[in-house]
């Protein structure tokens, strides 16, 4: 139609200009060429800062600085919860599992070999109250993913520890809510379900 002009800021519609809504440059269309899965994995890894898991574990075991231990646990949790892409979350959990961040695999081996080894998650769960709360928040976030549940449940007595924590906590505290939430997520599996009954 002659004489009809689009409203200001919408001149880019129907090829009438290079600007789109609100006067911003229109973005070029993304390429439709599929990316190789290995390239995708490499690109996702670049989005995350590399971590030295051995040093992190050593720090969590040896440190007496309660605030810094809590901050470290929070940062590890944020790698899961602040990540928007599901594939990246799985990549993070794979790394936690591969490096046995909480010693859940070590706990499974120790139970089989009847070895009283030092297990990081036990130290965190028996530590100061604040560390315990941050540990449970991290464990709860990890249990939200199937892969995370598989990793955590390698520790044979984790469900019993959480049930005891639930019984010991008085009132509706954050710690009790985290323990309950984690147990609910674990209840999706047969063995934890049986233990809870």
Give keywords.
11 helices; mainly alpha; 197 residues
Structural write-up:
This protein has 197 residues and is mainly α. The protein has a domain at 51-156. The chain is built from 11 helices and no strands. α3 (66-81) runs parallel beside α7 (129-143), α7 crosses α8 and α7 packs parallel to α10. The longest helix has 16 residues, at 66-81. The radius of gyration is 24 Å and the shape is globular. Residues 6-33 have low confidence and may be disordered.
How many beta-strand segments?
0
Please state roughly what percent of the residues sit in beta strands, choosing from under 5%, 5-15%, 15-25%, 25-35%, 35-45% or over 45%: under 5%
Q: Sheet with the most strands?
A: none
Anisotropy-based shape: globular
Give the rounded overall mean pLDDT.
79
Cα distance spanning the termini: 73 Å
Secondary-structure element string = HHHHHHHHHHH
What is the rounded Rg? 24 Å
How would you classify the quaternary structure?
single chain
Structural class: mainly alpha
- Helical element count? 11
**Approximate helicity band:** 55-70%
Residue runs with pLDDT of under 50 for 5 or more positions: 6-33
């Amino acid at each position: 139609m002659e004489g009809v002009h689009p409203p200001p800021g919408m001149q880019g519609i129907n090829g009438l200009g290079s600007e789109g809504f609100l006067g911003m440059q229109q973005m070029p269309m993304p390429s439709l060429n599929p990316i190789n899965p290995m390239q995708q994995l490499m690109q996702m890894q670049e989005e995350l800062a590399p971590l030295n898991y051995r040093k992190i574990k050593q720090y969590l075991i040896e440190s007496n600085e309660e605030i810094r231990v809590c901050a470290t646990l929070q940062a590890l949790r944020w790698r899961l919860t602040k990540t928007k892409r599901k594939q990246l979350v799985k990549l993070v959990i794979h790394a936690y599992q591969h490096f046995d961040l909480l010693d859940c695999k070590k706990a499974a081996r120790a139970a089989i070999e009847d070895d009283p080894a030092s297990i990081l998650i036990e130290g965190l769960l028996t530590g100061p109250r604040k560390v315990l709360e941050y540990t449970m928040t991290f464990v709860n976030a990890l249990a939200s993913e199937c892969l995370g549940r598989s990793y955590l449940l390698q520790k044979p007595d984790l469900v019993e520890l959480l049930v005891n924590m639930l019984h010991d906590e008085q009132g509706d505290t954050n710690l009790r809510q985290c323990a309950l939430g984690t147990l609910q997520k674990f209840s999706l599996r047969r063995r934890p379900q049986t233990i809870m009954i």
